[in-house]
Write a structure and sequence with these properties.
The complex is a heterodimer of chains A (454) and B (462). Chain A is of the alpha+beta class. Chain A contains ten helices and 23 strands. Chain A folds into two domains: 17-42 and 91-216, PmbA/TldD fold (2-Layer Sandwich), CATH 3.30.2290; 220-451, no CATH class. In chain A, strands 1, 2, 3, 4, 5, 6 and 7 form a seven-stranded mixed sheet that branches. A six-stranded mixed sheet of chain A has the order 12-11-10-15-22-21, with helices on one face. Chain B has 462 residues and is α+β, with helices and mostly antiparallel strands. Chain B has two domains: 21-215, PmbA/TldD fold, CATH 3.30.2290; 230-462, no CATH class. Chain B has helices at residues 21-33, 93-104, 129-132, 136-153, 213-226, 244-247, 255-259, 266-270, 332-337, 372-377, 429-434, and strands at residues 41-57, 60-78, 81-87, 156-173, 178-194, 197-205, 236-242, 290-295, 316-321, 324-325, 347-348, 356-357, 362-366, 369-370, 381-389, 400-412, 415-419, 423-428, 439-440, 449-450, 454-461. In chain B, the strands form five sheets. In chain B, strands 3-2-1-4-5-6 form a six-stranded antiparallel sheet. The longest helix of chain B has 18 residues, at 136-153. Chain B is globular. The chains are: A alpha+beta (454), B alpha+beta (462). Chains A and B meet through strand 2, strand 3, helix 2, helix 3 and strand 7 of A and strand 2, strand 3, helix 2, helix 4 and strand 4 of B.
Chain lengths: 454, 462
């Protein structure tokens, strides 16, 4: 029999990713279950690459995959021919091929009954309500997911598989007194099993969230302006994600829309600043075995003692930059994304030691999110709460504090870094796609502009 | 040229071979009859959709994508408690039904599902069949048109893209609800830079004739060019003109979406977790010039449709009339808890999640509306802001916010002057709405809110 030449034989590259995902979600509000959902989804994502043009397709119908792969490959060839604005030819970068991987899990959440999860969530939530049943209301969210991913490529990868299990919970306490209303939340989650939920010490965790929410009722708006800021570990993770991580995503640099373009090998921070992106960080919310390109997830050093030593690449951005892939292709199809960004620890014994030697400043705690603009390096992020620092001591409690800074200035101003690194997590959005990320760091001190009353 | 679209929908926007909600409901009812759980109320939602998009980076077309999918959500009320599960394959339906029954043992208390209605509105301009047959080449051509204009303008096109798609939804429940709804959407946007100045413009419409890609490209380019060379900073309490994209923005990231809408959500209100409470209904809670309406029947509205996510007809709900608080937005469950006869038709969701009160099209308007130029003329010293960044850090309970102003300009003696380098603005949305004396007479709907430009006294730090 004569084999007819297919479009898939003619393109530079193609791959097919099959995902089966099971998930559970539970929401409790004021000791009442309001949502208990379980879902199962099957999905196939197809990609084809030819001389600089990518085409993608996704479907949840396995019977269509073979035909759809042909169409996707044909479209990749015709896209480059059709458009007068077609991307110039480049080759996909190489990288270390991924290996089969499974999230290290002690207790598989999928194996537990929903009743058990609900009971545990109630235990954690009820303690928060007991702190002040008159003034405290609660929202407790639990979620787990297990995704079985299998990748086949035109370069001989066949059904390379990984299982990614994520599990976690969040507790929000809403404190109310007359017309005043404030909220506080804490999150425990990671790429791991149900053990992360069992390990929660609810007497500490839940009480602390409730007490912090109540205390916030008496907090004041922050004074605006340039200030010395001490950031707690939970906030440093978001800080380094926004202020540095996004700028190291090489797709921005390929486009020359990044102030770090041309800064490789140069000093961009004080010598206390060292940062890595670690794709296998234990329990990191952004951990995985291999990326969307099938490249092994390792650890990438971004800053070493203030010097910019590395960038994050996919096979696509690496191909355009003439660099190796670092295994950072994530999202549904093809984006350069961080995994777990970690600001490495320093010399100070604790955050207290940093505060003690700070005459005047603001101490900021935990993150409520942030955004960044790679082209000019301006970023902003919010803190859950803060305190004024006066003569080395914690003073007035502050609410709704947010910070504006510029990467090239703020990293150079870091003048104190504590020893202990604490893991935190976030959900990061870029180009309309959301991925879980780890954000970790120690307490640090720097200079920034605070939004508030001028 | 190429044809990627795998399963072109029919003229109604429905994909081939997607199971019908009514058929699945019959299956579920039969299965339950054979078990002790005879007296269940059941609801099936089936959604399907198709979309195609083309993106350009750095002035080059880099990819074209196509996706098609469908999903099934099963909600069941058994012994007064809700169970829910979802899947995206017909053969998983039996398993999903079992999971829904299982989760109902511990689920939320709910007295049944919505009743059938004979009276569904059919808002004009929600479905454009031309989008279903739009060729892949036309989508690419549109992105190229944006690139050509951006190149002429001298800015660098970091990103330009267009997407077009359709969605089809069916809801059937054991109370006799049978309703189908269809929807099309087309969007285009571009992000450009020059030096360290940035410009962005994007639009979403349900009708392709309302998208003008050339205008979108021109707006983004002029935004970047006008903000070029920003050196100025400014601080103090001053009048701030917030343009519509500050108030409402893609993904619900506008200031009012982040910091005000949660407080009119019926679920928060009945739990006592909103700054607004039922006792305030009938009182002047906002500026007497302010009107706010949630209108799911708004012609061409981005959030318009025949029904919400639980088969309740959409409607026009007055939230605030001349500053007087009139109502909140409810889904079936929150309306029951609030002691109301029925939901306001705001129980929106997708197939994989349970309903929750969300706005359809929230329309803000002022009885003091004047042209935007007049708003600016009345300001001796203030700023004009086109976008906000960091609104997700706004306090959705208290309404306090401290966010970054983007593409901001000084206003001096009633005229727009130099661009501002960087500024944080802070205030409280409830305070803003109590003192919202002035707004412009031109409204647009960037996301869930249709809004004019508004003026507020806010703290600026730069």
């Amino acid at each position: 029999m004569v084999r007819i030449k297919t479009f898939r034989d003619s393109v530079s590259y193609w791959d097919v990713e099959r995902i089966v995902a099971e998930a559970t979600r539970i929401v409790i509000k004021d000791s009442e279950i309001v949502d208990s959902t379980s879902s199962i989804e099957k999905k196939t994502n197809i990609r084809a690459f030819h001389k600089g043009s990518w085409t993608y397709a996704s479907t949840n119908r396995p019977e269509l995959v073979d035909d759809l792969l042909e169409r996707t490959c044909r479209a990749a060839i015709s896209l480059g021919r059709y458009s007068k604005f077609a991307q110039e030819k480049y080759e996909l970068a190489s990288g270390e091929r991924g290996k089969e991987w499974k999230t290290p899990v002690k207790i598989d959440p999928v194996s537990l009954s929903i009743d058990e999860k609900v009971e545990r969530l109630f235990e954690i939530e009820k303690i928060a309500r007991k702190v002040d049943s008159e003034r405290i209301k609660t929202v407790a969210n639990y979620s787990d997911s297990r995704s079985d991913v299998s990748l086949t490529t035109s370069e001989g990868v066949e059904n390379l598989s990984q299982t990614i299990t994520r599990c976690g919970m969040a507790l929000t306490c809403i404190a109310r007194e007359g017309d005043k209303i404030q909220s506080m939340r804490d999150i425990k989650r990671g790429t791991c099993g149900y053990e992360i939920i069992n390990e929660i010490d609810e007497n500490k965790f839940s009480k602390s969230v409730a007490q912090r929410a109540l205390a916030l009722l008496k907090a004041k708006a922050a004074p605006g302006g340039k200030n010395t800021v001490v950031l707690d570990p939970l906030l440093v993770g978001t800080f380094i994600h926004e202020a540095l991580g996004h700028l190291c995503e090489a797709d921005h640099i390929v486009n020359n829309d990044d102030i770090l373009a041309g800064h490789e090998g140069k000093i961009i921070g004080s010598e206390l600043v060292s940062v890595v992106d670690d794709k296998r960080a234990e329990r990191g919310f952004g951990s995985f075995g291999f990326d969307r390109d099938g490249i092994l997830g390792g650890c990438t050093q971004l800053i070493d003692k203030g010097k910019l030593v590395g960038l994050l690449n996919s096979r696509t951005s690496g191909g355009q930059m003439k660099q190796q892939s670092t295994g950072n292709c994530r999202g549904e199809f093809n984006q350069v994304r961080m995994s777990n960004t970690i600001f490495l620890g320093g010399d100070y014994s604790s955050v207290d030691e940093i505060i003690n030697e700070t005459k005047k400043g603001v101490y900021l705690i935990d993150s409520s999110g942030g955004t960044t603009e790679p082209v000019n390096g301006y970023f902003n992020f919010g803190a859950m709460e803060g305190f004024l620092i006066e003569n080395g001591k914690i003073a007035q409690h502050l609410r709704d504090v947010s910070i504006l800074g510029n990467t090239l200035e703020i990293l150079k101003s870091v003048d104190a870094v504590a020893k202990e690194v604490i893991n935190h997590s976030g959900i990061c959005g870029k180009g309309g796609e959301w991925v879980p990320v780890g954000t970790s760091g120690p307490a640090i001190r720097t200079q920034a502009m605070i939004g508030g009353v001028a | 040229m190429m044809m990627m679209l795998m399963m072109p929908p029919d003229a109604e926007g429905k994909l081939k071979d997607v199971p019908s909600a009514e058929g699945l409901l019959d299956d579920a009812v039969k299965k339950l009859r054979a078990t002790p759980e005879k007296k269940a109320s059941i609801e099936i939602m089936v959604q399907s959709g198709e979309s195609r998009s083309c993106s350009a980076e750095k002035g080059k077309i880099v990819d074209f994508r196509n996706s098609n999918s469908f999903g099934i959500g099963v909600r069941i009320v058994l012994n007064g408690r809700v169970g829910f599960a979802s899947c995206n394959r017909a053969e998983l339906f039996g398993n999903t039904l079992e999971k829904a029954i299982n989760t109902s043992r511990i689920g939320e208390k709910l007295a049944g599902l919505p009743q059938a209605s004979n009276d569904y509105p059919d808002p004009e301009g929600c479905f454009d069949s031309r989008i279903l047959i739009l060729s892949d080449a036309r989508i690419i051509d549109n992105v190229e048109s944006m690139l050509a204009i951006l190149n002429q303008s001298g800015v660098r096109p970091t990103y330009a893209g267009m997407s077009a798609g359709s969605a089809f939804q069916e809801i059937a429940n054991s109370n006799g609800v049978r309703i189908t709804d269809k929807d099309t959407e087309v969007s285009a946007g571009t992000y450009v830079t020059i030096d360290t100045s940035v410009g962005w413009w994007g639009e979403i419409e349900k009708n392709i004739a309302r998208i003008n890609v050339e205008e979108i490209a021109k707006k983004a380019a002029s935004m970047a060019l006008e903000s070029r060379g920003a050196e100025k900073t400014v601080s103090g309490k001053m009048p701030v003109v917030l343009r519509p994209h500050c108030i409402s923005e893609e993904g619900g990231s506008g200031l009012f979406e982040a910091a005000f809408v949660p407080s009119i959500n019926g679920d928060r209100v009945v739990r006592g977790n909103s700054r607004l409470n039922p006792k305030l209904i009938g009182t002047t809670a906002f500026d007497p010039t302010l009107d706010i309406v949630d209108d799911g029947t708004l012609p061409k509205g981005l959030g318009s449709g025949r029904c919400d996510g639980e088969g309740v007809p959409t409607q026009r709900t007055v939230i605030c009339e001349g500053g007087v608080l009139k109502s909140f937005i409810h889904d079936h469950a929150s309306a029951l808890k609030a002691g109301l006869a029925e939901s306001t038709g705001n129980g929106f969701r997708d197939y994989a999640s349970t309903p929750f009160p969300r706005p359809s099209n929230l329309v803000f308007s002022s009885r003091n509306a004047v042209p935007e130029a007049e708003l600016i003329e009345g300001i001796s010293e203030g700023i004009l802001v086109n976008w906000l960044s960091g609104t997700h850090t706004a306090n959705d309970y208290s309404g306090d916010f401290s966010v970054e102003a983007k593409n901001a300009f000084l206003i001096k003696n009633g005229k727009i002057s130099e661009p501002i380098k960087c500024a944080m603005i802070s205030g409280n949305v409830f305070e803003m709405l109590r003192n919202l004396k002035l707004a412009s007479d031109n409204s647009i709907q960037p996301a869930s809110i249709r809004t004019p430009s508004v003026v507020a006294e806010l703290n600026v730090v730069g």
